[in-house]
Specification:
The chain is of the alpha/beta class. The protein folds into two domains: 14-153, Rossmann fold, CATH 3.40.50.10740; 161-301, Glucose Oxidase, domain 1. The chain contains seven helices and 14 strands. Helix 6 runs parallel beside helix 7 (254-261). The protein is globular, with a radius of gyration of 18 Å. The model has no long low-confidence stretch (mean pLDDT 97).
Amino acid sequence: MKPILPPPLSPGGRIGVVAPSGPIRPAALDEGLAYLRRKGYQVVEGRHLRCRHGYLAGTDAQRTADLNRAMSDPDLDAIIFARGGYGCGRILEDLDFSPLKSRPKLFLGYSDLTVFYAALIRATGIAGFYGPMVLNYNRPGKEFRERSLWSVLERRPGWNRFRLSRRGALREGSGEGKLVGGCLSLLVSLLGTRFDLDTRGAILFWEEVDEEPYRIDRMLNQLRMAGKFRELKGMVVGRLERCAPKGRTPGLPLPEILSDHLRGTRFPVVLDFPAGHAPGKLTLPLGLPARLDTGESLLEILP
């Protein structure tokens, strides 16, 4: 599918807010919606945005209806997800992406929305934006970098260039390919499904939260055995939040784990890219051509 960059946001635009995964606390929701309004945007709440069904933000039918309604609404310029958690994968097969082909929209979220982006890119080619959700908007500057968020969403000059730390290069080099990925455990959950991520000729971004080193090792091993590293052009590893060994469980350093699973490959690899669950997150477009160059210390989106 040909990559599609959706139109940028402009103050005054209409943003739909839905929760296809876990429920969000009412206070956090209200604070986040108020933040978007202060930025000059009109906010349209999904009908079931404030629902709760156990660990889900409403039943599967309710969450599906809200997301499908938002995707088909011609008056919405963007859809921002309320929070992650778990549950988006349960409704992927019932989503209707067809209205987006004539009216591409901008999508913003991370974590559990990894599976939505995989399905979105496969069905439409539309890029998804891996960045802060409504849950994060009560702490701008700490939870996320405001300048990055609005630079990317409003397509300000330089929005597509991300500087890399020279100390973060695990393997030097350069490569070009479509930037794909998301949360590691969600990427693994797609293996064997029709939404499985195509990594051939791609630059793979991944990050994680609350997973001990042996679990990260296990997931990387599964991706390796599934052939997901074989034809990569580059790898960008995001921040690993609270992923240290717990209790008396011994660990291994990430560079050693990666070196084991990437043996026989030659693409550049960078670590500790500030995107994902960790505080201070950048907003990263997924699904677009990109260039990774450790010599220039640069990850550049090539729209």
